[in-house]
Amino acid sequence: MEKIIITKASGETDFFSEEKLRRSLERVSASPETIERIIQHIKKELKPGMPTSQIYGHAFSLLRKEESSVAASRYALKQAIRDLGPSGHPFEKLVGRLLSAEGFVVEVGKIVQGLCVSHELDVIAQKDNRHIMVECKFHNQPGIKSDVKVALYIQARFEDVARAWERDETNARKFHEAWLVTNTKLTGDAVRYAECVGMKAIGWSYPENNGLEIRLDRLGLHPVTCLTTLTDYQKQQLLERNVILCKELSERELSSLGLKDAEIAAVFNEISQLCHTNGITRNPS
Known about the structure:
The protein has 285 residues and is α/β, with parallel strands linked by helices. It folds into 3 domains: 5-75; 82-218, Trna Endonuclease, Chain: A, domain 1 (3-Layer(aba) Sandwich); 228-274, no CATH class. It is 46% helix and 15% strand. It has 12 helices and 7 strands. A hairpin with a 5-residue loop joins strand 1 and strand 2. Helix 1 packs antiparallel against helix 2 (32-45). It starts with a strand and ends in an 11-residue tail after the last helix.
């Protein structure tokens, strides 16, 4: 096939990658037959300069027709996370839920005194007697990457807090490392700087095979914004009530949104498939 240049959300151009499209479909466990049909369909529709949003939006529509709405919901995880905005607070809570599921003791939105100024830390995580300062960088617009300035900012805050604890004789709660977690891709300089100073970086498709989307999907930690059985207004109501994850939904919450029994059953059926559970327990409270 002749190489076709497409336009990324950032405005940059690149050659269409069949392999990238294939990997995105494999991530949501689409069948091999479905993947091949979608790829062949997309290749026939490709035009020079076509935006990636149009390509992946078309793939989403085809996936929804070919397979269950659940596969399509998982495929649209990136947009679902962007839909947590416009503020970054729900994303910080999502990251807190993720780290808690990975075995950390977590606090979200805590004030910590540095040597020079105080800092409101997005997430504090602790495991095996190591304390970690986690900063969450959220973007709700496509095409934006987290660049080296973000990593520099986090490192400066970490050093200010670390210097304060060096002067604390009790040294009661020293932070051992800083993490950057973002819902976007990271620039090459951001990755290189983080590696150089010992900062752990987690972003979209980074680290390879263990990026944010892989970690969330592996643990079944899908935000309520993934659900196709709820309206955008209903999802926003849930976020305002601090219901971030599909797994946190209860019958009472859904009833308060005005859903009937059949609609509630449909929501729980989607959650059961989306979160890799068999017959998820319907929490009445």
